[in-house]
Design brief:
The protein is of the alpha+beta class and 631 residues long. It has 29 helices and 19 strands. The longest helix has 17 residues.
Length: 631
């Protein structure tokens, strides 16, 4: 894995400042501590930081074609590069290295923009074609690898693997986007394609961007989407066998490396399934890594140990301090923009542990979105049945009234939280799902923001993110639709962002076989009843894994990767959260209603309400602001 940066003059061929390019490149040193390189020519500069994984001796970047008219900087892995190299060599292309990077320049020469459709892997890259005077950017189909870009006022286009590379450019305007703030406090992250800053954007998964020397910024082009195309008739047993064969193959192609390789093992279904496949594919014991928590409510290390024992892995466990909150400021610097998933803390620690022993680790990320593992999918289908039975003209006033008068019960099991259900039933399908996934609901954000900030939103609401994706969804099936929405938002904006930054902070490459695009395409075409059956999510996956894993791994309740925020804010972080929320940093933004912030704090710390997730999101926003403007 690596870090890439670039500068491109869209108006001419002005000289590139080599020191500026080097500074931008150096901000991502952690992504590629092994080597660095830059290439500069009139109007174009490309930089690269390398974490050496494949072709250690000759895979240096920037990398050129034979006549040096095409040059690329690349972050990621293309797993089918050997097959592509054979095909391209037969077409007359000459290879100087054995790296997957060189396949990109020759694929561009042969197939142009469509080259990305031939790549199987996780990738972002920037490619300059001098003959055509084209800069071509691409991001992998599921968004495993990140890419940020901006067009500056003087016509300079800049890009990088992390936002901090763009922030190193003095002409990037650091003006916060009010719409991004509204989205952050709805989702807990800023969804693609926005960033927290108005001038900077993310290239969305499955998209490319082609720039010439012209005015303005062209629209990205989508080259792939999750198809949800139904398969032909297939009985359950056939589906189980096919799923295992496809999973095994997705794991197998991710075992190519010239450095130590292992896996994360949480004790959940997805990571355990990946480890089971790995154990059957390699001769030596699999290196597995887990972290444990002192609090049994958050600890599933004993389940990880069961899998490790069964497959005779070289298993390594470290216990995370239950009060491991010293990472708050480090995370703010790591993510560059507000990011409120508190599981970033244990994710950072497990990556830190893994890097002590391996350079590449396989993970089980993506299984919940692919195979309907989240509990919220069950509730959404229940609510959809209610919505379909009662017209919205009747639902909206009836359930809206019930939602208003029913008391909030954060402490209760979800089945007893009727207020939230009533509020969801008063909405249409997309609004209802937005209400389910929202970090803070509409009414709470209404109270959170100041009057002046609400005026700056001009009526914009974060539900529009889901509405835009829902319009492009290729299926009407209610379960598949919300899976699609999660793949476009939560998977890429939260899960993959969290893992990329936490792993690359330790120069660790993480590979995700459950997000192999061919596997995703095939799973998307399975009937919804094979993914969610009754109360059982990941139904077909669990059935397929029964010969490989014990029932108490497959069929126990999902625990997640949580931290005890509620008790932190009433105990060891009591004063810190008060100082952050009621201090000058948030007050000076003009964004917040400080009276409501104090009310939230008082009610949480007295035990009357649980505002822990909301308070954490505000704390991380304050940490982001301090990181942007250090004292």
């Amino acid at each position: 894995m690596c870090g890439i940066v670039g500068l491109f003059d869209t108006r001419g061929k002005k000289a590139i400042d080599p020191q500026l390019l080097a500074r931008m490149n150096q901000t991502q040193f952690h992504r590629g501590p092994d080597e660095g390189g830059i290439h500069i020519e009139p109007g174009v500069g490309l930089g690269h930081r390398r974490l050496s994984i494949i072709d250690l001796s000759t895979g240096q970047q920037p990398l050129f074609n034979e006549d040096r008219s095409v040059v690329v900087v690349f972050n990621g892995e293309i797993y089918n590069f050997k097959e592509l190299a054979v095909e391209l060599a037969a077409l007359g292309h000459r290879f100087r290295t054995h790296s997957d990077t060189e396949v990109i320049v020759h694929a561009w020469e042969q197939w142009g923009e469509d080259c990305v459709t031939r790549f199987r892997g996780m990738f972002t890259f920037g490619l300059w074609d001098r003959n055509q005077e084209i800069l071509f950017l691409a991001r992998d189909r599921l968004g495993v690898k990140p890419l940020y870009y901006a067009l500056l006022d003087d016509g300079t286009f800049i890009f990088g693997s992390e936002l901090k590379a763009l922030l190193a450019h003095p002409q990037l305007i650091r003006k916060i986007d009010p719409h991004a703030v509204e989205e952050y406090f709805s989702y807990g992250y800023v969804p693609e394609p926005k960033t927290i800053f108005k001038q900077a954007l993310k290239l969305s998964p499955g998209h490319t961007l082609t720039l010439g020397r012209e005015k303005g910024l062209p629209q990205p082009r989508q080259y792939w989407d999750v198809p949800f195309t139904p398969h032909g008739p297939m009985d359950e047993k056939e589906a189980e066998e096919e799923l295992i064969n496809r999973l095994r193959e997705a794991v197998k192609i991710r075992l190519v490396a010239e450095v130590p390789l292992g896996a994360f093992l949480s004790g959940g279904v997805d990571s355990s399934g990946v480890v089971a496949m790995m154990a059957g594919l390699i001769e030596n014991p699999v290196n597995t890594c887990s972290i444990s928590f002192g609090d049994p409510a958050f600890n599933e290390s004993q389940y990880a140990q069961k899998v490790a024992t069964r497959y005779h892995t070289e298993h390594h466990v470290e216990q995370v301090d239950k009060d491991d909150f010293d990472l708050i400021d480090k995370l703010a610097a790591l993510y560059d923009e507000p990011f409120s998933d508190s599981s970033a803390i244990p994710t950072y620690r497990v990556c830190e542990l893994a890097r002590k022993r391996v350079t590449v680790a396989l993970s089980g990320d993506g299984g919940d979105e692919n195979l309907a593992g989240y509990r919220r999918y069950r509730w959404h289908l229940y609510e959809e049945k209610m919505r379909s039975a009662i017209p919205i003209a009747a639902r909206k006033p009836m359930f809206g009234m019930l939602g208003n008068i029913y008391p909030k019960a954060d402490w209760a099991p979800k089945v007893l939280r009727a207020k939230s259900t009533f509020e969801a039933l008063a909405r249409d399908s997309v609004e209802g799902y937005f209400h389910t996934v929202s970090l803070m609901g509409d009414k709470m954000r209404e109270r959170l923001f100041s009057d002046s900030f609400k005026r700056s939103l001009q009526g914009y609401q974060a539900v529009e993110v889901l509405r835009a994706h829902a319009k492009k969804c290729p299926t009407e099936d209610p379960l598949s639709r919300v899976q699609y929405l999660d793949m476009k938002t939560y998977l890429v904006g939260d899960i993959l962002t969290k893992v990329d930054r936490a792993s690359m902070a330790h120069a660790l490459e993480v590979r995700v076989p459950l997000l192999d695009h061919q596997l995703v395409e095939w799973i998307s075409g399975l009937p919804a009843s094979l993914k969610l059956r009754g109360q059982e999510g990941k139904y077909i996956f669990k059935k397929a894994l029964e010969p490989y894993l014990p029932d108490d791994i497959l069929y126990r309740d999902k625990m997640g990767f949580s931290v005890p925020l509620a008790s932190w804010f009433r105990g060891p972080l009591r004063q810190r959260i008060r100082a952050a929320l009621l201090g000058p940093v948030l007050a000076e933004t003009g964004i917040f209603n400080i009276t409501f912030l104090k009310e939230m704090l008082d009610q949480h710390q007295s035990g009357r309400r649980d505002y822990s997730a909301s308070l954490w999101s505000i704390l991380m926003f304050e940490a982001f602001l301090r990181n942007e403007n250090p004292a």
